[in-house]
Each structure stands twice: as structure tokens, then as C-alpha cells.
Amino acid sequence: MTSVVEVDNLFGIKNSNRTAEQHLGKNQFNSSFPTALANYMMSKKKSIMYNKVVEIDGELKVETSEISVDKIFKTSDINKLYFSFETVYQPYEKYSFDTIDGIDLSVKDINDNWLRALEVKLTVLPDAVTSKKDEKDWGSEIVVRSATTLYCALGMYDSSKNEKDKIRDIFEIPCSNIQSWESEFEVSNKYLPLLSALNKFEKEFLENQQPLLMQTLWKTNGQSPLLKDDAFDIIIWSDFAVSRLFIDRDYEKQVEKSKMSRPMRATARLARCLWELSKSDKIHIDSIYHQMAYGTQTDKEFSVNGLMWGNFITDKSRILKPAIRSEELPQIISSEMIELLKPERRFDQTLYFTYRMNEE
């Protein structure tokens, strides 16, 4: 039975593997606050944005629609939810010979039924790249971990495994033609068939995509740290939509002297994972990720700046006006918990707020 830690200071997080103090940690707060915000929006019956992949005129595109939070958490009863942070999503363990990394948020119910695996991002709008543009063109940077792309692969296979023979048929020729996955030269030169196979797979199994990444936006006045009145919102990215962040790059610009870019590496890894899973239902994750490092650090997969990010948001209405106002913040996190926060003591922040207070 899951051990329960009750916390009343973050909305809806009654049952969790974190104490109140742990929720406030520098790296922990970045996933705890978005979870509380999602709970709050569910209680208010406010939908959240949903980026998923659709096929239009034979092409795969990310489209922004809306979804209810209870469909993400698979229940509307907050009291029945258990939020397990930085925890391995156990239903996926059966697909790996190795220990898999934890994901930011594993959602369960209080009876230990696993409901959803979610990566969580807390990102500012706008980022430095887009802050000088018109507000309608503001964007937010996403830095994606290798754990995210791994869970992307495991989730895609888990939802489609009943047709694993069809999956193997899609990937067999392009993947079996690669003699050494460790060879940056070979994989980069045989990249296009892998890309084509992934596009074919996603068109075939489009209906199986499921939520994976929960991106919480906090909107400021340009690059100042002061919140806009319309301050918070959430975008859920399906596993297929997350994959388009690295698949949908200009291939010709990526290839230079047969070198492997980060998005190309993520694409090749995804294809190999799906192929090997379709053969045996189990993979050596450590081997795949270390063999295919290609001289680049393995914990960070790739990043998307605000300009590129904006290309994946087809409905900008909630970028201009996020759903939750800054005045609602006390309902999401208590004043007592705010007092316990220990933000970094930075001289530039002190200067900024001192000048602003003096101006007022």
C-alpha cells in the first residue's frame, strides 16, 4: 500500500510521496506547483490546452485543442489521487532489462492503480528569444531530458503493442540495415529511412497517442519577473506531439559532414527502441542510450526555443490570455507555504525589485 503524506498547502495534493517541506525544494517545486495548478483547474472545470498530432492532407501536424484535466488524471475526484514525484512508472518496467529512470510525476489512485506517467515543465512566457516580439508571437523554451524521449518510446509501444508484428514490419528494413548503431557516420547517412518509418508508424497508430508532457506556463511582463494579470496556463503534449519536437526539424540543415545533431539522435533512438521492442517486448535501454551518445551528453536530449515552440501552437488565444489570473494564486498555494520558499539570493533581482519599489 502506498504511504500517504498529506499536504494542505498546495491545492489538491492531499496524497503524495513528498512532505510539505520537500515540495518547496528548488527542483521539486517545479513539478509540485504545476500539479497543484492542474488540480485547481480541474476543480474549476477549466480545460487545459492539448497538443496532439493530426494528419492533414497526408502530412502529420501538431494541432492545439483542449482537454479536461480529469481525462489526464483519469478521475475527477482529487481525494482519490496519489501523486508520486520522480518515480518510475512501474507499468513500463516490464519493457526493460535495465532499471528505467523515474519520471517527474507518476499519477496513481490511493489503491495503487497506475493512471498516468507525466513529464512536467514549468516554463516562462516569453523566453529571451521572443521577448522583443509582439505579444502574439511570444514563445516559451522547452529543454527535454533523455528520460522524456525514453518514456515517449515506452508509451508509444505500450499503447500499440497488440499490433507489434505491424510495428516490426514498419521498422525492420531501415533498422536492420544499420550494422553499427554506435557509428555516427553510418546512422546519420541512413537517417532518412528511419525518419520515414517513424512517420509511417505515427500515421498508422495516430489514435493511440496519449498525454506525456505537462508544460505549465507562467507569463510575465516581457523579461521582467513581474507576473501578468493573466498569468498561468497548462499545455499537455501527447507522446506523438513530443516526438514531433525532434522529428520535425529541417533535415538538410541538421546534416553537416555526417555529424549527428541532438534532434537526429533522438529520432534514431526512438526508431531503434520501437523496433527492438516489437521483436521481444523488452530492450536494453542503457546500451541503446550509451551506444548512441555520439560524443554528446546523454542526460539532455535537445531543446526548443520560443520561436520553434510557437510553430507547434496552432491556437494562440491562450498564449495571449492564459486561463488563470495572478490574483488566484493564493487559492493554489497558501501564504504560509510562500513564506517558507527560499528563492536564490541574486544581486540583479535585489536591484530590480529595489528600484521598482522606489518608483512606486
Please write out the topology.
Blueprint: H1 20-23, H2 29-43, E1 48-56, E2 59-67, H3 69-73, E3 81-87, E4 103-109, E5 114-125, E6 142-145, H4 146-160, H5 164-176, H6 184-189, H7 191-204, E7 211-220, E8 227-238, H8 239-247, H9 251-254, H10 262-280, H11 285-291, E9 300-304, H12 306-310, H13 317-320, E10 324-325, H14 329-332, H15 335-340, H16 347-359
Parallel strand pairs: 1-8, 5-7
Antiparallel strand pairs: 1-2, 3-4, 4-5, 6-9, 7-8, 8-10
- Structural class call reads alpha+beta
Major sheet attributes: 8 strands, mixed
**What is the alpha-carbon Rg in Å?**
21 Å
Extract low-pLDDT stretches. none
N/C terminus separation: 54 Å
Binned, the helix content reads: 25-40%
Q: Report mean pLDDT, rounded to a whole number.
A: 91
General form: globular
How does this model look, in words?
- Helix 4 crosses helix 8, helix 5 (164-176) runs antiparallel to helix 7 and helix 8 packs across helix 10 (262-280).
- The protein has one domain (20-333).
- Helices cover 40% and strands 21% of the residues.
- A hairpin with a 4-residue loop joins strand 4 and strand 5.
- It has 360 residues and is of the alpha+beta class.
- It is globular.
